[in-house]
Amino acid sequence: MRRIILSVSFFVVVLFSNAQDVAVDSKGEPVFQFYSIGSRLEFNRRAPLSASCLFRQNESKKNWGPLVQLSILNSGDLPMIGTLRDVRPGAGIKFGYQHAIKEFFVANQQDKNSRRTSGVHLFFNVDNIKLYDTVTKTAGKKYPLTYDVEGNFSFFLKNKNAHSKWMKALSFYSAISSTWNDHNLLSYQEISKVTLRPDVVAMQDFDGRYGVIKKNFFKSRTAISFPMFYKRLNPVPYVVAIFGTHNSPSYHMGVFTNLLATPVGQSDSKIPSSFGIGFDWVYATENLSSKVNLFLKLSISLDR
Q1: pLDDT tens across 16-66, in order?
Q2: pLDDT tens, 105-139?
Q3: Which of 192, 193, 189, 186 has the alpha carbon at shortest distance from 206?
């Protein structure tokens, strides 16, 4: 019964979410951000639920305004929660200054209004994990911290042809983090809950992380994307470069495509509800992985 209740709750969050990250990579990290004026709910693998508000901009400040976002973090390995014992929510807060636009695309070449958006945000995350420390040989809860600064810039191109169905943009995203060695830790399960055979090890699920937490890991992530809109389709080709302390550089190359509930209008500056599917490859240590990462994303706009 608990599993059913939690699963239903999970899908309710999905069905009533509206993402500010219009396109993401296979890690759930943003490659194309767009913030609309007003309040939003957002779902992704990393933050199952977050609430943000971009306060109405002052015309005298050329549509710049403050942004505040509160998040509940998924500190586990899987987005679906099986039992209440597995619930280990973390917390995050983001605040910054963001520029918005009133209209997405304008065909009139004489229009001099800005079609650029940009912003700078700071956020602070507290994760909540169960760790088996290999030095002390003990298991317990840990609350590692992450500090991050991110920036986004998008330029929306004007249509030369007023009747053209294609709309295009060029987007940049960059973030620098002081974090912990999340991806360097292994997962573990108690030996009493594991079935051992000469050729296999069987277990129902993982219990926590295994290793030693190391702090002050620095990571930089930069994404370049080329969002396109054609009627109800929104393909977003992208390239992501990641550099981190004690980790080799890695690169994501792929395409994320949204199926929009309604076409993006000439005077509409908000992303409508969408269902997205993406795929990418990871290039690291001089090798391009032959594995294709497939992933899905669903966003429902609460605006009319």
Answers
A1: 333 467 888 888 788 998 876 655 556 555 666 666 677 766 655 567 778
A2: 555 545 555 578 899 999 899 988 889 999 998 98
A3: 189
250: its two tokens: 């890695």
The tokens for 219 are 């990571």
**In the structure encoding, which two tokens stand for residue 210, read together?**
């295994």
Domain map (residue ranges) of the chain:
2-299
Calpha distance 261→240 (Å, rounded): 27
2-299 to CATH, choices 3.30.40, 2.40.128, 2.60.120, 1.20.1330: 2.40.128
The answer for 79, left when phi > 0, alpha when psi is -120 to 50, beta otherwise, is alpha
- How far CA 9 is from CA of 16, 201, 202, 211, in Å, comes to 11, 32, 29, 32
Centre a 10 Å sphere on the Cβ of residue 4 and count the other Cβ atoms it contains.
8
Q: Read off the pTM.
A: 0.77
